[in-house]
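Morning run. Coffee first, then this:
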Amino acid sequence: MITPMKKVTILTLASHKEETLKALREMEIIHLTPLQNAVGASVNGAKGAVARVQKAMEVVPDKLRKGVTPAAKGASGVTLVEEIQTLISDKKNAEIQLEQAKEELEKLHAFGNLDPRTVKELVAKGIFVRLYLVDLSKDPFEVEGDNAYKHVFGKDENGTYIAVFTKGDAPASVKGAFTELAMPLKSLEEYRMIEEESNTTISAVDERFAQLASVKDDLEDRLLEVTDRYNLVEASASMLQNKGLAALQGFCPEPRVAEISAAAKANGWGIRVEDPTDEDNIPTLLGYNKLSRPMQCLYDIIGISPGYNEVDVSSVFLCFFSLFFAMIVGDMAYGLLFLGLAVFARSKMPKASSAGFHFVYLMSWATIIWGAINANFLGLTPELAGWSYYLDIANYNFIPEGVRNVLYWIRSSAPTDPTRFEAYRQFCETFTFLPASFVPKAAGASQMQHIQLFCFCIAVVHLSIAHAWNVVVRFKRKSSTFMAQVGWLMGAWVMFFLACNMVLGIDMPKFVIPMFIVEVVLLVLFTVPPSRLKQDFISIPMLVLDIVNSFTDVISYIRLFAVGMSGAAIAEAFNGMLSPLFGSAVGVAGAALVLLGVHGLNIALAVMGVAVHAVRLNTLEFSNGLGLEWSGFAFSPFAKQKN
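And here it is:
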């Protein structure tokens, strides 16, 4: 449920701004909205403090490396940040000096231990010295003048290094393909010392960073402190102020308005509580029940939130997401693995939020149940592993025959037991509205069409819920467009029958064409409210594309079949290829290693499939039918980070 909000305006003395904000911060009750841009030296200073701590945390490793001496405890967060800032500066300077030294050594290495002080002495005696990098392969290097002398120091892949000495009033002119090199500021020996010292400094700083990993918790505490300070300063700067008074504004959950009113009375604030307007940018606070609480984890992972004026679909989203997750992962063993890991993690983190664990528990059990329905355990069959026979619940006699046949019907292949196959075949023949291809011809025969039809059934139910919900919402809002949603609801069933006909060869009922005509009439007449007909007239011809899209929405659910079956097919294929190795201990060990990698890859692909397909079917196809844009942002009360 989306919690109703009230817009709250509080008036206080300008001299008491900070005290007022601190009181509200302790209550954690109001989502502040700025009344003006937060600017000023205090804001910039607080923001800079946050940036400095963040920078300090970036350079310190998360964990203490083996063999590294931990830093001494007891230093304050302020002291640690100052030390790290100094270390960062030292390292940066050392890196600059190292780069400069390397550049000079690379450029002048062929000149030996050239000392600029010696060059200065020569210049003082009237001797000019110039350094050149010459490409002798292009042109000869010539020096003009009788008082000039050239000396070749050496060569490398870049060319020949030559020094020209000239006695006189000016340096000698030279000809050829050359680049004149600047005289170094230091001797090459000094540059080598700088290089060594810089490397030593960088290593020492990195070692100190490694030691400080032991006190990173103190840095995290400091980050919370400066973040709290920044939030307080920013909130203060965003308040309106005039004639000794200051005002702030925000949104408070309606059930807690009495608390903030009592606080206003106790603190002497002026307060105004009103209903938000359509122009207000209202945060969304979702209230979860026991059924929908796991959705809190999924919303946080995806980073979405319904708008304040939209509907909360958490329960429906979670129900269908669980089904999609189970169908895509599809393997009982994977579900057991997820469940075991979640239970283990919960035992190690008993104080962590329960929403995430409940979400994993639910997904795990859904996968286990779907895997049991489909008798899918690591792609094993009784022919490869006899014990897998007992994992198929349809093999137990206590299962009623009708239930057993339903379990067989939604599997990718018919039962292999001849006796049970005959009963199942007769069960399939009772569905006279389905083509003969839906009746398996032999035990173990493929029946992929059954899963495809099941996916289309999920599609029409899922989309029907969306459109029916939209009908109710718009009817309550007294909008005539609710009749258009009735048309879309009918259209979902029209497209379902059309998809079944085109993909599976199922005959369309005679009422489908009249239903489609009624759908089109309702859409043309009621998609655009009469009051907006001039502005939104273009929406009517665009209905052609929307109707086509409604067909693709239904077809889109076939991805559940395709992605789910691909994982099972990979597992079965590798089991078949590696089965000849099961005859020896070495073969079993080798096959086990290969299968471990295969199933690891399969799990990774399944999780990616869930992230892409299961999320999409809820946030796109279903949400489009409901008119849900996920345009909201979460309610974030003004509160301390460090608690």
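Residues 115-183 form one domain. Good start to the day.
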